[in-house]
Amino acid sequence: MDQIAKMKELISRLQEAAKAYYAEDREIMSNYEYDALYDELTALEQETGMTLAGSPTVTVGYEAVEELPKEAHESPMLSLAKTKEREELRDWLQGKDAILSWKLDGLTIVLTYVEGKLAKAVTRGNGEVGEVITNNARTFTNLPLQIPFQGELVLRGEAVITYSDFEKINEEIPEAEAKYKNPRNLCSGSVRQLNNEITAKRKVRFLAFSLVTCKSGKAEGESKPDFENSREKQLEFLEKQGFEVVESKKVNADTILDAIEYFAKKIETYDIPSDGLVLAYCDLEYGKSLGRTSKFPRDSIAFKWADEIRETTLKEIEWSPSRTGLINPVAIFEPVELEGTTVSRASVHNISIMKALELGIGDRITVYKANMIIPQIAENLTRSGVKDIPNTCPACGGETHIQKVNEVEVLTCTNEDCQAKKIKSFTLFVSRDALNIDGLSEATLEKFIGKGFIHNFSDIFHLDRYKDEITQLEGFGEKSYKNLAESIEKARNTTLPRLIYGLGIAGIGLANAKVICRHYDYDIEAMKKADKEELSEIDGIGEVLGEAFSSYFAKEENQKQLQALLKELKIEKQPANEEEQNLSGMVFVITGSLEHFTNRNEMKELIEERGGKVTGSVTGKTTYLINNDISSNSGKNKKAKELEIPIISEEDFLKML
User: Fold this and answer.
1) CATH label of the domain that carries residue 232
2) Which one of 96, 105, 174, 565 is separated from 374 by 20 to 30 angstroms, measured CA to CA?
3) Number of structural domains, the chain?
4) Do residue 246 and residue 211 come from a single domain?
């Protein structure tokens, strides 16, 4: 394994250990092992003169600024001439060798390193003037903060966010209109943040694509590298400095068409956004001698993917309600093959776009994949006109309303109690600590609710009514439906605390639900009738939670919902045994690895069943810290010793029981 690869592996292992210890309250390696890996990384950094992004040997401080300063580029950053014709690229070569690489769809950045350290990072801006984002660049996940070369190095590259990271970030945003439209927009906003702590959370990557200048430094015996007049050698040099370099292939007139085909196939699964290719002469002096036009350099050219367009017939407009109240139109058309996959639907986004296309059922339309990925309607050939915008919401039957938002017409549901707006409550109901139903992700629930399959919790247990429709949905099939049906049947057997938690009563977590259930001897009727004064006297509940619990059951619709659920479920009765409540009033913190329990949740459940409570941090209220490594110097052990709180092992805990 080469040195850079070894350093990346060490950083990854050390980051994982630090995350487990500080963020997840668990230890995956001993202090001794961590220190050994840290020392190995330090030695490699000293040996190579390189410090990679994310290295625990350096800390990137978070800083907020009032505004991003502007700075002019030493040489203008011009756009590239473009073509969609593969043969034109071959002709452009003029018999010369060239480098063919991805044209990445992110934000172009210019980096300057002085004496081996990152000195400056500037965005492309308008090509003449960019914004200085040096502190933000220090948080890019793969950017070397220190490199072996001690001279002055200026390079260009693209800041990008992968499709997979983009999807993860969007999944955490509940409001549909707040979700980011595409990775490029998210990347641009992330790189230009005034607070680089936000940039750090977005997992921005940097891929180098060209070297601008390279000047010798002050170090004794150091001279400018000899790139042998080769762009390929420049890219190899950047890679040796620790930069992730854009994927490329050296081509000539005989090999370029095969190389284009290689990239065309790879983009179907490529995780980094790309909107084409770039072809640049390998001979640096020759490229420089060509000069430039007023708009474009003559040493390189961009290749944009030619859109594959298919004609088809619009079958229907599906109206999809969302949690924000927007009801979004989706075009359903006769299936066509596009870029190697079968496509039968495309988002139309809003009523304004529908009207601009004059989109009506039965129209002949042309469709394509934007950047070879996202299905879109290109043109409506027959334009019969927009009709039949629904007056009622497909999810709840409530009245709809057309309104203008920033001059764009959208359809909204006016019913505040629309199920589509309450997607979070359904997500909680099927979550692991509640009914634990696999196969009902938030996206799937939103789809089912929008289709009208689910109106309340008990409807989940009757999805078999819609088996045919579900198996025809995109992303579903017979196997997916079978797995979901089995998970729903399994969920019919549950416990009362899980059910109470799943109802989504404000502030009532699983632990509080267990406390209330034990107090009322698992008698649901007694719990429903309890008033806030009675509930607030329960140890660990208090006035606020007591009022929330009693207020929930004071509403008739909530009573009906619970009764409907009880008809579907088989509740395991767990009568409280006073003799077994021997941990009542005790507060535990669990840390480190366990031997007698499968995981911490299993131990936590046992403690709560015996009347105890489990928290995440050691405080003055903690009764015991459970840690099998009693002599460890972990943060929790140190805190417990400071507060004179006993540290006990699993064995000690089991003896207490």
Assistant:
1) 3.30.470.30
2) 174
3) 6
4) yes
Q: Average pLDDT in the 155-184 region?
A: 79
The runs of H, that is alpha helices, within 192-301 are 196-201, 231-240, 256-266, 284-289
Cβ neighbour number for residue 318 with a 10 Å cutoff = 16
Lookup: tokens for 21: 């210890």
Domain boundary among 491, 518, 552: 491
Query: Do 525 and 561 reside in the same domain of the chain?
Result: yes
Active site residue 103: yes
Find the farthest-apart pair of alpha carbons in the chain and give their distance in angstroms, rounded: 91
Helix (H) or strand (E) holding 648: strand 647-648
Task: Give yes or no for residue 241 having a pLDDT over 90.
Answer: yes
SS3 119: strand
221 Cβ neighbours under 8 A, 6+ residues apart = none
Element containing residue 131 per DSSP (H, E): strand 129-131
Which residue, 527, 544, 576, sits at the end of a domain? Answer: 576
Q: Which amino acid would we find at residue 636? A: K
The active-site residue, picked from 70, 84, 96, 103, is 103
* pLDDT, tens digit, 9 for 90 and up, residues 388-431: 899 998 888 889 999 876 677 889 888 877 877 778 788 889 98
pTM, full prediction: 0.52
| 362 phi and psi angles, rounded to 5 deg | 90, -5
Helix (H) or strand (E) holding 100: strand 98-104
Check whether 18 has a pLDDT greater than 80. no
Element (H, E) at 471: helix 467-472
Residue 90 is part of which domain span? 76-304
Backbone phi and psi for residue 198, each to the nearest 5 degrees, phi listed first: -70, -45
Cβ pair 590, 596 in contact under 8 A? no
Q: Are residues 252 and 273 in the same domain?
A: yes
Q: Rounded distance, CA 135 to CA 281, Å?
A: 34
